[in-house]
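Review form for a predicted model. The reviewer records the input and the model, then writes brief findings.
Reviewer: anonymous (R2)
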Amino acid sequence: MAVQRLVAAAVVVALLSLVLNNVAAFTPSWVLQALEDGRKRSVGLWRMCPVGVERGRDDLQGASKAHGTERQCASVGWGSDYAGYQESRSTVKLQFNMMRACNLIATVALTAGQLIFLLGLMELPFVTQESQWWEEAIAALFQLASFVLVIGLVTFYRIGPYTHLSYSCYVNIAACLLATMAAAMLIWNILHRRDDCLDAQVIVFSPSLASPFHLRQDNEYVESPC
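Model under review:
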């Protein structure tokens, strides 16, 4: 059985969402924070780098400071509370911990959906494209990824007055929208197929079958393929 184009398109959209989700996770540009001493730093889910270092009087000093800035990039993880100017450490800690968890769950869900799709292509005995749960499981995983990404992104609705969202956050928003689109495409396909099967389920018998006194040799009828 050939794979339906809509299912394949939804999986491709989800794959793009998975790529963008990982790009947003491993780039240190989730928020741009201003510190009390006027310096700025870019904080991501797993890395933090200072930005806006003052240039020296000549190009050599600027180059050396640029290399120093690269060396100052540090890894961040669970429980880190790098807050900007006039930001609450507990709020920042909650926001990033929630976003890390949601990002990991979305990555697992999108990857699992891709694997189930590939298993269906392999026509294994326990996973086939004709299985009723095959497409539904993929749609459920993509919808789970979309749901948890929304939860994580909503936590950043409140940030400090001197903190701004950076491009990694917007990349993750795009990943969330793509996951939602992939799930919607599959759900629409499932419901549309069921609607087709609900129509024309009436069995029409030939007139000869309605009479009890005639021989019923020709059992002609029309039946829905669903």
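Findings: Helices lie at 5-26, 59-71, 89-121, 132-154, 167-198, 207-210.
Further findings: Confidence is low (pLDDT under 50) at residues 53-70.
Recommendation: see findings above.
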